[in-house]
Amino acid sequence: MTLRPILIHPDPRLKKRCDRVTEVTDELREAASDMLETMYDAPGVGLAGPQVGLMSRILVMDCVKDPEAEPRPLVLLNPEITWSSDDLNTYEEGCLSIPEQYAEVTRPAEVKVRWMDLDGATQEEQFAGLWATCVQHEIDHLDGKLFIDYLTPLKRQLITRKMQKLKREKARL
Ligand code: NI
Description:
- This protein has 173 residues and is an alpha+beta fold.
- The strands form 2 sheets. Strands 1-2-3-6-7 form a 5-stranded antiparallel beta sheet. A two-stranded antiparallel sheet has the order 4-5.
- The longest helix has 20 residues.
- It is globular.
- Bound molecules: nickel (II) ion.
- The site of nickel (II) ion has 5 residues, from helix 2.
């Protein structure tokens, strides 16, 4: 397993719609395990393909935050939301591609998601709480959408400017 560098916003790859996965190749399995390792290392609870420059509909997540509890790494290929609750939930979201910036985003509190696993089998599960927020945030990434796209243009611009500054500073190191 290898840690993969995480792209920082703004980056054109974070604004693109990703392609469907048509075949589970060894390369894709390797990418999935690298993405999980990269996510745990960050640390984060979710990571989507484009964040490591992989323009495929793949995301990984594990929202078990209790270090004493058993981890639950999930790899979702071609995830689709098949049902959303009318109940909404507001959560202070962050993103590994927008480090140290957080903002409240309101989304359906529960969603049912269908996806293909690494064995090519179809899975479906209903997510609630942080899992629901996370899976919706990560699926957005596959459509080139970031959590800051839910904010006012002013807030979005402010965060984007901070990230541009951060990238300039990183480039100088
Ligand atoms: Ni994100």
